[in-house]
Amino acid sequence: MKVKICGIMDVEAGLYAVENGADALGFVFAESKRKITPELAKEIIKQLPEHVLKVGIFVNEKPEVIMEIANQTGLTDVQLHGDESPEDCEAFSIPVIKALSIGTIADLGKIDQYGCDYVLLDSPKGKYRGGNGVKFDWSLLTGIESNGKKIILAGGLNPENIAEAIGIANPYMVDVSSGVETNGKKDLGKIQTFLARAKRREEVR
User: Fold this and answer.
1) SS (H, E, C) the chain
2) Is 116 annotated in the active site?
3) What percent of the chain has pLDDT over 90?
4) Is position 122 annotated as part of the catalytic site?
5) Residue spans per domain, the chain
6) Given a cut of 60, is residue 98 above it in pLDDT?
7) Residue 19 pairs with which residues in a beta bridge?
């Protein structure tokens, strides 16, 4: 199982996550308690291995601003977490992950509207567009036809429920932020446990 640790704000947490098997790291450039500056993101990204995806999270930002930050920092992918249209998602020269809020089965119909290779399915938005620690009904994804898109499961995941979530939703990748934090800061122990349990799930299939 591929794993993305989102909301990285320091080198220690980023490197530790990668050393323990993280396939992708997320850097939040939208309004959030985990918002990072391009300068700091660049410092972290330049110390990461090439194979790790470096994903920038944006909400309703202008494409030219996003690409400027991507070029400045070394992002490999862009995650759009706002009200971006399918057309908006086609304005980039690097892969796009479109985040969608899932509250009912009808919301899954949005998946086919986007031409992105990746679609991130998250809980309905709270104070922020993501990272609110609230899960949605994973059973909505049982037997879902993704039509070739890579589904990333997010929203309320943590070390205690990750195995169950993977078993029900069977995503391409899982994404965690607040679920591996203590008092609002990345917890290295929780990161290690989450990664171990997510990766182990694949081994026993």
Assistant:
1) CEEEECCCCCHHHHHHHHHCCCCEEEEECCCCCCECCHHHHHHHHCCCCCCCEEEEEECCCCHHHHHHHHHHHCCCEEEECCCCCCCHHHCCCCCEEEEEECCCHHHHHHHHHCCCCEEEEECCCCCCCCCCCCCCCHHHHCCCCCCCCEEEECCCCCCCCHHHHHHHHCCCEEEECHHHEECCEECHHHHHHHHHHHHHHHHCC
2) no
3) 82
4) yes
5) 2-203
6) yes
7) none
Residue 143 has pLDDT above 90, yes or no: no
Q: Residue 139 corresponds to which tokens in the numbers above? A: 């059973």
What pLDDT was estimated at residue 201? 53
What is the spatial distance between Cα 197 and Cα 10, in angstroms, rounded to a whole number?
23
Q: How many CB atoms lie within 10 A of CB 49?
A: 8
Selecting among 23, 77, 88, 122, the annotated active-site residue is 122
The whole-angstrom separation of Cα 205 and Cα 199 is 11
Work out the average pLDDT over 187-202.
90
Per-residue model confidence (pLDDT) at position 203: 47
Among 6, 88, 89, 116, the one annotated catalytic: 6
In tens, the pLDDT along 169-187 reads 999 999 999 999 999 999 9
27 forms beta bridges with 56
**If you search the block for the tokens 């400045």, which residue do you land on?**
72
CATH 3.90.1150.10 correct for 2-203? no
